Amino acid sequence: MGATGTHIEEIDHQILELLHQGLNDAVVARQLGIGHRTVQRRVGNLMHHLGATGRVALGARAQELGLFTSGRNACNARADSV
Q1: 3-state DSSP: the chain helix, strand, coil percent, rounded to 5?
Q2: The pLDDT value given to residue 75
Q3: Which one, 8, 53, 61, 62, has the greatest CB density within 10 A?
Q4: How far is the C-alpha of 59 from the C-alpha of 17, rounded, in Å?
Q5: At residue 3, what are phi and psi to the nearest 5 degrees?
Q6: How confident is the model at residue 58 (pLDDT cuts 50, 70, 90)?
Q7: Could you say which DSSP state residue 35 is in?
Q8: Do residues 55 and 43 make contact, with C-beta atoms less than 8 angstroms apart?
Q9: Which 8-state DSSP code applies to residue 23?
Q10: Of 62, 51, 48, residue with least CA distance to 19
Q11: 3-state SS of the chain?
Q12: Residues 82, 42: Cα–Cα separation, whole Å
């Protein structure tokens, strides 16, 4: 649950985290053991639920709501691994 009380299911939270890391839908699906279309459907549902008009807006909205547990943005995470 985010700071504003926005509740999302655990699977949706995991999807957001993996997308935030820069992974595409197919890789997210494989890592979570769910179907590619399931990831796409859940991302669409998240966009609707959070009022985001696209994937970039979804990430920004999730960040605003404090839905990421990592506390780091994807660019910093990638830079650290280089």
Answers
A1: 60, 0, 40
A2: 44
A3: 62
A4: 9
A5: -65, -25
A6: very high
A7: -
A8: yes
A9: -
A10: 62
A11: CCCCCCCCCHHHHHHHHHHHCCCCHHHHHHHHCCCHHHHHHHHHHHHHHHCCCCHHHHHHHHHHCCCCCCCCCHHHHHHHCC
A12: 31
